[in-house]
Amino acid sequence: MFTLTRVSRLFRRHTLWPDFSRRPVFKFISKRSGPFDGAVTLTRDRVYIIPTKAGLIFSLLLLTLLIGSINYEKNLGFVLTFLLTGIGGVLLLSTWRNIAWLELKSSDSLPVFSGEIATFSVQILNHQLIQRHSIAISQHGVQHDIVDCAANSKQMIYFKVASNKRGVLNAGRFRLYTEFPSGLFIAWTWLDLSMSCIVYPAPDNKARLPVFDHSNSGDTDSSGNGVENFSHLRKYHQGDNIARISWKAAAKNDELFSKEFIGAKPVTHWINWNDIPVRDSEQRLAIMTALIIHAKNHQQCYGIKLPQKQIQPDSGNKHFHFCLTALALY
Amino acid sequence: MKIAADKPDSNILFLLLTEIHLSALPLYSNMPLAITLLIVALSLWQFFLIKNHRENPGKLIQILLIIICFLTALYSYGHIFGQQPGIALVTLMTILKLFETKNIRDCYIIIYSAFFIIASNFFHSQSIWLILYVFFIVVFLVATLITLSDQLKSMPLKSRLSMASRFVFYAMPLMLILFVLFPRIPGPLWGLPDDAFAGRTGLSEEMSPGSINQLISSPAIAFRVLFYNEIPSHRQLYWRGAVLSLYDGKTWRRDDAPDSAQANIQYDSDSKNIFRYKVTLEPTRLNWLLSLEQPDIDNSTSSEHAYHINREAMLITRNKITKIINYSVSSQTSARNQALFKQEDYKNRLLPVSKNQGNKNPQTIKLARKLFQSSDFNTQQYINTVLAYFQNNNFVYTLNPDLLGENAIDDFLFNSQRGFCEHYASAFTYLMRAAGIPARVVVGYQGGKMNPLDDYMIVRQSDAHAWTEVWAGNHWQRVDPTAAVSPDRIEQGILQSGIERNRLPLLLVSNNELFKNIGFLYDSFQNSWNQWVIGFNQKKQNELLKLLGFDDQDASNLIMLLIGCLIIVGGIVSWFLLTHKTIEKDRVQHYYNMFCLKLKRQGFQRQLNEGPVDFEKRFYKKHSLSQKTKTDAMFIFKAYRTLHYGNKKNSDLTTQYFKKIKSFKIRK
Q: I need a labelling partner for B327 at 20 to 30 A (CA). Which of A34, B86, B425, B583 fits?
């Protein structure tokens, strides 16, 4: 699957990619929460812990038991009270341990169309030989996901952010927390892993879409770039259209093969900013998005022309996302 | 912060129901039948609801149930305030809480209530068995906490339990430090309800036919004695408790008239017959202590528990004894108590009068006159005549006496002639008084057995006894009429007294040496438990600290010491807890992880997404390794794959695999 990092790498090369990771988002909160680039280990100073409501009531219970033991002079009452106090301490440490020393890595998030919900995934790496239980992620007080993480392994955890306009959507700060193993304490960390996601313009559904006709095909091409007839298999190269991978061949061998076609060379279409008969630029982008989706759905070869940018006609998934990203960041 | 709002599943509800019952189990024997039945009924209903995933009953029914609970408590106890009804109501309400458990928060409330129920067990018993049982339930309850917070339900019950027991184990050192060093405030903080210390067998302040008799079958320990110098012989072991002077024809009672007068005991300063001893008394709920005859406050060792000696030579304390206490006494058994006050003299001659026709027990009074006449009105001779009368008239010493009528003494002397010590003491005192000689009944214990293991003498409830004190020769003279009937009772104890053995405690009756030794061992253990755990108080705390070399013990120093110790021990515990690499259930995996750790130390780290095959391949590629290392690694990888992924168990391969990993070293 085509992913955001690849897009971003692409754009860095083209110097179109703004440096979001250095943007000071939550300056007023401790620098500990980030934003960080890439990976963060939850060291001692990044994990906070306080008693929950249940924990506070537990301490009231301890106090009552203590007063009762003093009043009735029952030494075994003291034993029980102090045992529970000790257990409280042990539970505090265990709750802390359940989340401490995890390494968190930002993962790629898929681009979405404006108005859709973006899913951000964080990779939890557990290097210790202890199993972690019930680790939850939340943002703005809403729990999004909860996972277990086996000893010496990794696990993905997701949280979702609604997008409302095209461009770059910052995931922002999230909270990773746990109440395991007692619910008496909550240990958490605030983190901003400077994750972001490209938000494409929402396609204009009312746009008038052209009808593609295959009959007026141009020259034939025997170099393997055609679309009509299967010619042969060749080794898979990075960037090849996934739709052209021969899964049958892949099943027989260890490697991937791409199918080559000969036949009619595809017709190229230009989706031009200046051709869109609307004044409002956002609406223009919406119509262009609709056109790109339409062209892709009909396996056409298309290129786009923006006022300052032009993308040469091509087809395939990679090209599709490349074009939409250009629109998103326009 | 946010507690999941969804309804807890039936597994959790079952767990909670079980735990409420486990917590209250030791209490059930002390609850009235109606309460127990209600608990059983509610639990069965609850069980049925959970099992069939039924909806909980509505609000109205719940309120009705609460009213039923309160009414049942009112019916069973007569009131609902106080400790016993309180415990019953907490248990009932906790079970009722299950009926309206909607979310996880309700589960926490039930768990906390269970802790309260556990604590209320200590009102009845503070034995070592109870605390061990409590530890077990606490593990269970902590496991429930784990269950509640394990929101993905990924842990099996077994690993939850093992995790909980690990937590309890780690909490032990912290508990120990807090127990020893936490500043002890002498209680009670406020007045205790009257029924705060219910349900113990022991002597009472009254004596009526059958009151001592019922103690005989109890093997419970009344008190323990540590003698500082010599140990008295069995016939000297008269443990005086209460002096009973008032008689109404049925019951002997204490004369509680306020009187600041003191006993007038003539001590002989050179006498060798002074016994100095420390008594560890089990709670009696009475305000007097037990001592050998002619007690004196021991000046050489300060007594842990304060008392004073009254005119009847009883040891009186300010408050009722509600916990195990220690006190020291010295007794000079050869001394004489010469205190007889005017008021007392009068009361000690008093005979009960029936409503219409003069004195009760006319036959006895006739007998007394006859015998006193035949002894030439000499008190000492009269005592001997009466004792001889008991010996010569086929009186039987028995645990199964006949019931006595309105004129109890007449009935006993002339009809049944079967009685236990209280009958003899009562009749003898009556005969003395009928002759105009001041006499009174003393209840206490007679005898005691040394535990060879820890040199403590054990006096049991079965040693309870009653005898008479007669004013003769200007001092109070002890006369034990039981000795006339059954001399062995006094010489060798209740066991040899020829009494029905089937009523006596098994521990005493058994002739098995092993059984007896185990009994002694258990008892000396129980004694240490009482001395150091149940009886641990401010004084013991100070003693212990002095022993450890902390002389300056004001509260702030103690708190500093407590905090210091907590930090040290807490540090050690958290070091274990935080660096603890959990022991993998799967030992094959555990060893593989060890192997990977070894490689990591050599700068060759397994990627988290790397399986054994890829890792192995990479391993061979990267290093210039010796042949030995390569073959070892190859063996380990292969064995791991076979053992971990294969489905056959191969113990030879496993042991070899463990060995190879233990000895594995990278050689270049």
A: B425
